[in-house]
Amino acid sequence: MDFIIAKYNYWIYIILMMIGFYAMIAKTNLIKKIIGMNIFQTAIILFFVSMAYKKGGATLPILTNADMHGEHAIQVAGYLNPLPHVLMLTAIVVSIATLGVALAIAIMMYRKYHTLEEDEILKAIK
Amino acid sequence: MIIEQAPALIVVVSLMSAIATPLIGWLRKDLCYLWVILSLLFTTFCSVLVLNTVIHQGTIHYYLGSWLPPWGIEYVVDHLNAMMLVLITGASLLVAIYSRKSLEIELPDRTIYFYTLFLLQVTGFVGIVITGDVFNLYVFLEIASLSGYALIATGEEGAPLAAFRYLILGTVGACFYLLGVGYLYMVTGSLNMADLADILPRLYESKVILVAFAFFMVGIALKMALFPLHLWLPDAYTKAPSVASALIAPLMTKIAVYIMLRIMFTVFRPNFSMALLPVTQILLYAGVIAIFVGAVMALAQRDFKRMLCYVVIAEVGYMAGGVGIANAVAIKGAILHIMNDVVMTLGLFAVAGILAYKMKDHEIGAFKNIFKTMPFTMAAFLVVALSVIGVPPTCGFFSKWYLIQGSVMAGNWIFVVALLFSSLINIVLFFRIIETGYYDFGTSESGHAHEEGSAVNEAPLSMLIPTIAVAVVIILIGLYNQSIITNIINFAVPKI
User: Fold this and answer.
1) Which one of B378, B395, B465, B469 is most buried, by most CB atoms within 10 A?
2) Average pLDDT, whole number, for chain B?
3) Given B146, B168, B189, which is nearest A97 (Cβ)?
4) Radius of gyration of chain A from its Cα atoms, rounded to whole angstroms
5) Which range (B246-260, B266-280, B301-315, B324-338) has the least confidence?
6) Distance (Å, rounded) from C-alpha B369 to C-alpha B377?
7) SS3 call for A118
8) Cβ–Cβ contact B179 with A under 8 A
9) A21 touches chain B (CB under 8 A)
């Protein structure tokens, strides 16, 4: 039980990811698939952000006393790792672009077949 | 000056010219074609320069913004990716030259945006290959994939759905790759490939590393269309516009194979990838099944482009199997096969594009009399087909030879059987086209149809020249394969 509570953010990331994965595979509605894809990508963002987190009141790495006589310039334990957040900014941009392309393709199909159900579109193609 | 900056210029010039394409198209629509060719000529020139430098002076390190490696992003060009760069830029230059006539018919009102996406796609490809940073690779992978989805979606009836399915699966693949990056970063705190390679050996027993490796391999296998994960490929590449499939089909899967080689042998050491996990076994058997399934499914197709897609799936099996055999000769064969397969698949899809342009159809049954009406195209097609089958003077023979030699040395007969089986099936496959196209049984009863069909009606020169160039390159690679191997590929094979 401790194992689950102590790392709850990772468990949430796994659960979210599986929800997204299920929606992508099992749903036939294209918009639901897209929503699933977005949940999937968001779960990864949660994973990266929790990776950067440290317990015990660590804050942003704004260095106020870096030049003070060269002693204790940076105490690593006091600061969060900023890099995963920066990576996730890029990943958010990527996921928005993916979402855009996916929605554009869905709109293309809706205009042509007047439905967003995958099986009905398949029937219309054949 | 240009030599020092060449690695960055390859990426920057293709990205910037992609952004400039709509502006130029806004001024004058037909300038786009020249603009794309011009920028690709420049990047091809740069990559040849880079390859030349690498052959003579060894690996190039390029620090973006002069930030040193573990912190900044670094471009690393060694023999393997110098070869890939020349292949990518050269192939996309040929496709760009080829594109004009085909686009006039297939996408007359969307040419400008097509070229923009085309250049973005090339940017993604060269970026994936050139970078020495695992996260940067993810970003380029997504640039390449996203423009690929958009290009495919512009195709014929059913293309949007194919593109949508590819998008869903491709996103899962890329996300798995990103998760792999995350797990590696968690334990090492580094994203630079060389730095990771230094830090990782101390952590090989860690479960986190195993999870990361598994995520990497599954994600890349999805992008590579390795056997159980190949389902997105046939629809997507069949229904894409001819030019888009001539660009994406030769390059995307091969670049995924390149990523796999990088992860397995640069980021992780060969002894990890080969000894600690059964991954090479899995790759080998997935490759063998891919070859069998690809060959049999190709045989069952009546659509020419769809048949070629299954040929691509079988070829991916060659490369995965070659890496799975895991000795130096087989990996040499696999790397040589990356090169050959780019050229051969380009040739096949270029011919398919010409046939689609002339016949307005890519069903094999429609290809009556093509040998008489399009003698040059079909001569090029014969060279490519012989190479895919693996007949000696063409390049396809040599990579297959190394693969077979490697698997004999490893005592692995299943892979040998698979390779020979696939060659046999390829003979049948291409003979079917020759049968329909050359021996004209069907129309002999109605004599007049025969006569009006037999006048020479060759493809336009802008499509024909790149196709013939591909055929010539296939023979040249075959003739000079020894010097290619001693100068480039021997350096790219990991030390096992």
Assistant:
1) B395
2) 88
3) B146
4) 21
5) B266-280
6) 12
7) helix
8) yes
9) yes
Q: What angle do CA B128, B133, B137 make, to 5 degrees?
A: 30
- pLDDT tens figures, B388-410: 998 888 888 999 999 999 999 98
Q: What is the DSSP letter of B494?
A: -
pLDDT at residue B161 above 60? yes
In chain A, residues with a C-beta closer than 8 Å to the C-beta of B171 are: 37, 40-41, 98
Flag if A30 and B164 touch (Cβ within 8 Å). Answer: yes
C-alpha dist (Å) from residue B143 to B131, B137, B238: 14, 10, 22
Q: Which of residues 48-107 of A touch B (CB under 8 A)?
A: 48, 51, 81, 83-84, 87, 90-91, 94, 97-98, 101-102, 104-106
Q: Is the pLDDT of residue B60 over 50?
A: yes
Asked if B240 and B158 touch (Cβ cutoff 8 Å), the reply is: no
How far apart (Å, rounded) are the C-alpha atoms in residues B382 and B376? 10
pTM of the model: 0.92
| CATH number corresponding to A2-53+78-125 | 1.10.287.3510
Distances (CA, A) of A16 to A20, A46, B177, B214: 6, 9, 18, 20
- Output the six-digit token pair for B213: 């490796």
Provide the residue ranges of all domains of chain A, joining segments of one domain with +. 2-53+78-125
Question: Helices marked H in B28-110 — which ranges?
Answer: 31-57, 79-106
Q: What is the pLDDT of residue B441?
A: 56
| Best CA proximity match to B47, nearest among B157, B127, B113, B163 | B127
Tokens at B380, concatenated: 């090029």
For position B3, what pLDDT does the model report?
79
Q: How far apart are the first and last CA of chain B?
A: 37
- The reported pLDDT for the residue numbered B447 is 45
- pLDDT, one tens digit per residue, over B17-43 is 999 999 998 988 888 899 999 999 999
Q: Please report, for residues A45, B221, B283, B388, the alpha-carbon distance to residue B426 in angstroms, rounded to integers and kept in the order given.
A: 45, 24, 22, 7
Tokens coding B245: 């499939």
Q: What separation, in Å, do the N-terminal and C-terminal C-alpha atoms of chain A show?
A: 53
* Residue B405 contacts A where some CB pair is shorter than 8 Å: no
How far apart CA B188 and CA B195 sit, in angstroms, is 9
pLDDT value at B440 more than 90: no
**CB within 8 Å: B161 and A118:** yes
Count Cβ atoms below 10 Å from residue B65 Cβ, excluding itself: 7
- Residue A123's CB: how many other CB atoms inside 10 A? 11
Q: Is B117 left (phi over 0), alpha (psi -120 to 50) or beta?
A: alpha
Query: Apex CA A85: angle with CA A81 and CA A89, to 5°?
Result: 160
- The whole-angstrom distance between B72's CA and the closest CA on chain A is 12
Chain A's closest residue to B135, CA to CA, is A87
Confidence of residue B453 (pLDDT cuts 50, 70, 90): low
ipTM: 0.91
Q: In this structure, what DSSP letter does residue B64 have? A: G
- In the structure, what pLDDT confidence band is assigned to residue B444 with cuts at 50, 70 and 90? very low
Give the span between the Cα atoms of B4 and B20, in whole angstroms: 25
User: Taking CB atoms and an 8 Å cutoff, what residues of chain A touch B160?
Assistant: 105, 108-109, 112
Q: What is the rounded average pLDDT of the residues A5-21?
A: 89
- For the segment B84-92, the average pLDDT, to the nearest whole number, is 93
